[in-house]
């Protein structure tokens, strides 16, 4: 018999499918809820069994991160509603930052929106840093946007503790040396990724986007970075991050806030207010998830 993709619940079909990544699949469940689950096959080939095992491992690692973040929430980290045996139930977003940036040549992003997009992922990554975590795969494809164009950081299957070995290396968002080795997970690795994200936000394209991946990677390995002279506001932040000059992501957050004329105390007050505003929606979404799991439990395929 031919291999086939096993659905996490028998009630789901290809009509519910949204996307597929290295860690697994994402399905639309109900209303504003998606399920990220490991890739599983029926009648699998040997290589598909390896993919299944790796996918299950990454999803379990991501669950562990979300359990921490659920206890220590941040408004710019995507809302995890429920961790279940089948996978991770998450609040559904509108698009990815990568999708929006691809439209920037025909629909330029307003300066105020760009400023928000620089601050929000910086704040989210700084928050993870305080929790002893490193995202490890920070790039526009892993940054979501909600209906109000606010950033929500997602995809924590490559997240590790500070000081650990990085699990992902996506150029031009990952620092590498001449031996194609990455630094340990921490401020140096994370601020390099953040720099490439900030550059992409400010210029509407990746660093050295005009080059093929090999040539682009060679330039970055040699620490040849694109000019940021056209970005008078955040250009030196980007350059300093590429060179790993900040002691922590928190210090980058403080620098960005200062440039925007906002204090750390003001930002903390805004963060708490945003979480309070999300609380009723979170309660409703969790109730919907729990009801869905209860009703569909008989139809679990695994």
From TrEMBL:
SUPFAM superfamilies (alphabetical): Protein kinase-like (PK-like)
- The EC number(s) this enzyme carries: 2.7.11.1
Which is an annotated GO molecular function term of this record?
protein serine/threonine kinase activity
Which PANTHER family does the UniProt entry name for this protein? SERINE/THREONINE-PROTEIN KINASE TNNI3K-RELATED
Q: How does it assemble?
A: Component of the EKC/KEOPS complex composed of at least BUD32, CGI121, GON7, KAE1 and PCC1; the whole complex dimerizes.
Q: Which InterPro entries match?
A: Kinase-like_dom_sf, Prot_kinase_dom, Ser/Thr_Kinases-Pseudokinases, Tyr_kinase_AS
Function text: Component of the EKC/KEOPS complex that is required for the formation of a threonylcarbamoyl group on adenosine at position 37 (t(6)A37) in tRNAs that read codons beginning with adenine. The complex is probably involved in the transfer of the threonylcarbamoyl moiety of threonylcarbamoyl-AMP (TC-AMP) to the N6 group of A37. BUD32 has ATPase activity in the context of the EKC/KEOPS complex and likely plays a supporting role to the catalytic subunit KAE1. The EKC/KEOPS complex also promotes both telomere uncapping and telomere elongation.
Q: So which domain of life are we looking at?
A: Eukaryota
Q: Specify one Pfam family.
A: Pkinase
Q: Which UniProt keywords apply?
A: Kinase, Transferase
Please indicate if the UniProt record lists Kinase as a keyword. yes
Q: Which reaction does it catalyse?
A: L-seryl-[protein] + ATP = O-phospho-L-seryl-[protein] + ADP + H(+); L-threonyl-[protein] + ATP = O-phospho-L-threonyl-[protein] + ADP + H(+)
**Protein kinase domain: from which residue to which, for each copy?**
12-285
UniProt name for this protein: EKC/KEOPS complex subunit BUD32
